[in-house]
């Protein structure tokens, strides 16, 4: 899968993708990340990319021409063009999965400053927001899109690592533990040390349901739960999540 990021701050993107799992995914040719410096498409001798807004008001606005030229420099018939913006559709795990399966090439335009010329919207397929708050720019948002999709690409991380991720199947993930077995009288649940796979899986499924019930009850969809899961949910309700 290929990502083309159009940004005024290429170093910000570069710093993140040069480390850790994303770096390895690039090295293993699982994903391709292309950084396009919007400044290269600026107009006039100053490579200008923004200007004051008509009608007056504070802040600089991204101009339509540099953005459209930058998009056209990388766009193909397979591209989906996304603009990061607090006004966009809110990003979530389902969209990450959907794009991972359906898209070959995402062009992500990082919004900036006080906003962008409204006419840019005619050249993008959709706006995506990463949440109901306003960032200084779209770089962090674009990295969130890339990171959340890239880890779903085959071979980037072990498949079982994301099969039971939080939000998959509308449940949060179960609690996990590592060494030591005991810390300040807090002990790892015995079943995890038992080697009994069926019991461990049951404990984990109940952990998913309990976590979701206590932390994000809005996610719980009873129609997705088995009869056994529903029984456990009823027990939780009776004991107020204990
Ligand atoms: N740019 C500024 N705020 C943003 C947000 N919440 N999501 C995506 N891009 C943004």
TrEMBL record:
Pfam families, A to Z: tRNA_m1G_MT
Q: What is its EC number?
A: 2.1.1.228
| Chemical reaction(s) catalysed | guanosine(37) in tRNA + S-adenosyl-L-methionine = N(1)-methylguanosine(37) in tRNA + S-adenosyl-L-homocysteine + H(+)
CDD domains (UniProt xref): TrmD-like
Q: Any idea where the tRNA methyltransferase TRMD/TRM10-type domain is?
A: 1-221
Lineage, top-rank taxon, reads Bacteria
Q: What does this protein do?
A: Specifically methylates guanosine-37 in various tRNAs.
The record's family statement is: Belongs to the RNA methyltransferase TrmD family.
> What is the name of this protein?
tRNA (guanine-N(1)-)-methyltransferase
Q: Give the species this sequence originates from.
A: Spiroplasma culicicola AES-1
The UniProt gene name for this protein comes to trmD
